[in-house]
């Protein structure tokens, strides 16, 4: 079941609160603690290639785009 599927089903049973609560208990995805999907870029939402240094929470692509705006200098 994908993330969008459980939301669609929940929309259909919203009028029955008891069934909706039971459905959420068993079918809602858990919050990720480890693995690739635990962190995603705050700017674009990508999962891979993160910069955790300086608590940036950006993927490398977004970092390259906005590095100079943040205050980093490019050394070549």
Question: How would you explain this protein's 3D organization?
Answer:
The protein is mostly helical and 76 residues long. The protein has one domain: 30s Ribosomal Protein S14, Chain N. Helix content is 42%, strand content 5%. The protein has 3 helices and 2 strands, in the order H-H-E-E-H. The chain has helices spanning 3-12, 17-27, 60-70; strands at 50-51, 58-59. The protein has a two-stranded antiparallel sheet. Strand 1 (50-51) and strand 2 (58-59) form a beta hairpin.
CATH architectural type: Irregular
Query: What is the level 1 CATH name?
Result: Few Secondary Structures
Low-confidence stretches: none
Give the domain tally: 1
Q: Sketch the topology as an H/E string, one letter per element.
A: HHEEH
CATH topology: 30s Ribosomal Protein S14, Chain N
Rg computed from alpha carbons, rounded to a whole number of angstroms: 19 Å
Share of residues in helices: 40-55%
* Oligomerization state: single chain
Number of strands: 2
Please state the overall shape, judged from the principal axes of the Cα atoms: elongated
Strand order within the widest beta sheet: 1-2
Which structural class fits the helix and strand makeup?
mainly alpha
Q: Main beta sheet: strand number and arrangement?
A: 2 strands, antiparallel
Indicate the mean pLDDT.
Answer: 85
What is the number of helical segments per DSSP (H or I, 4+ residues)? 3
N-to-C span: 47 Å
Approximate strand percentage: 5-15%
């Amino acid at each position: 079941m994908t993330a969008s599927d459980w939301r669609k089903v929940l929309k259909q049973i919203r009028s029955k609160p008891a069934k909706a609560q039971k459905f959420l208990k068993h079918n809602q995805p858990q919050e990720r603690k480890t693995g690739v999907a635990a962190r995603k870029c705050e700017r674009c939402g990508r999962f891979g290639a993160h910069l955790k240094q300086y608590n940036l929470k950006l993927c490398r692509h977004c970092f390259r785009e906005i590095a100079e705006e943040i205050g980093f200098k490019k050394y070549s």
